[in-house]
Amino acid sequence: MIRINLLAQQQASGKAAAAPKAGGGGGFNATGLLVAVILLIALGAALGSALMFFNRVRESQLAVERLQAEKKSIDAEINKKRADSEDLARTLSVLKTQYVVLQALDPPDRLLWSRKLNVLPMYVPGGIFLTDITVTENVKEVELPESRRRYADWEKNDKKGTPPTRTFKPVITQQMSLKGVSFVTEGGSSERIRKIIDFYNDLRDKKVTLEWNGEEVNFMDKFKDEEAFSDFESVEIDKRQCTKFAFNFTTRELNTQVDLESAELPGAEAPAARPAARRGRPAADEGNAE
Fold it and tell me: In Å, how far are 110, 133, 150, 185 from 264, measured between CA atoms?
């Protein structure tokens, strides 16, 4: 009886069948690895992009914070300079106001009484005798417009803080009184009165020439153009009949008003430009050369 061993063939066929299975399992593992690598690369790229975006956002935030800090510093400096500027403006306003008051004490058109007294004898005619010369002065204080404005602003602000200093300027008027008598050797009271009227008219209208500088002046310069004589009175002096008179001349209001906007404090003017140096010979030499 012939026996055939089929076990070896079955084992061989089993190994042959197992080989393709093993080969199929190896292909699946390679694909998964490739997918995993791709996912890791994509994840790394995404993380890198996210990190770059975060860095840019952070840099932008830092830039904004830096600019905000700079703005805050600049605003603080501006506020400080604005406060300093307001203080300087107030100080300048007060100084200008005080300067106006000082100018008012010595106005450019002030009347010099010494000149009047030097000129007066040139007007006195024969028969007129001055017995008394008096100069009086009236000073009235008037608050400056700038001072009134500052005080009104302080009142509108519910009187907060220190009240501003109120500044006044003097308004000066002066009066010259001439008293005297008229006497004539011939004629009565009408002749004495005529001499007084002629003397008064000369004071108002006549111009005289100063001997020391040749200047032509009028006694009424800087006086108000108004009637200045009082009533006449007949009196007896040393058994002589005379007529008393009195003239009262009032000065015009002195020009003490100064525009605060255009007022310049002493030393505040811009320095004059230095003339450019010329080349060559001086003008005098040029003239001599010609």
Answer: 21, 40, 20, 61
